[in-house]
């Protein structure tokens, strides 16, 4: 794909959004904005869904009051999730990614857990992890995303690959990436704890443990000594490849959220272009809000998250505006940790 073709693809995305009436007028604000400053339901975690949940935070109200407080994966070092006057001790290190968000939520739910105790109510997650948890957690789907790979328009990596090609790349096949120590391709993964990282690894048929152990030596999750932040195309050079959320790319292209694409363009997998509706793309995933299982029937959790008639599931225009497809199982509580 050359620059002209990439521009046409982006224009097509924008036109599709305009036809469905989903392009936002202004970018979503990071962290809770407006009143009240502190919300009943405070959440952290996934970079992939932070912007759509920021949109939800501004759209979802109960009796005219905003109830969702969604804190971005990156930004200031610390966040304060509850009013210090009534709930002191809720200033914590900002969790970055699905894994860090889930861990922070679990810590918050533990009785007498110390710092953060009772300060978080849900976590954003772009991956499913049903490992045993105490207390139990429920992964409530609300949208569908798709993931492809990103490269630069002047790089040598083909713009059309099969899933098997990508698996060969992420298995460090010398026919695709060259040989050590001077690989011809920089094979990148997002930072540790990223839901996109764990999802992409599962699609590539590799494990995070093997990546960390160096079994695939061509794979890197840092550049210039800094972690690779997911969905930030500025990390790419002409020798790099990295997974990228299609929802994030499209909402950045439409200026719905901050544009961090840099020179990144999206690749085609198995002949299917990454500009189609996400639910039709081959490499797709559900995205979730994670809540305590014990709170499923308790307001405001039950009103905001649970069931196809929940306040989040009703916000189909918000889901579409941020590049996602509505999940056909929106609000389901069937995915629970033991």
From TrEMBL:
Signal peptide location: 1-30
Residues in coiled coil: none
Domain PBP: 33-207
Keywords: Signal
Keyword Signal listed: yes
Gene3D superfamilies: Periplasmic binding protein-like II
Entry keyword annotation includes Signal: yes
Pfam families assigned to the protein according to its UniProt record, in alphabetical order: PBP_like_2 (PF12849)
Domain of life: Bacteria
InterPro entries given in the database record: PBP_domain (IPR024370)
Protein name in UniProt: PBP domain-containing protein
Biological source species: Streptomyces brasiliensis
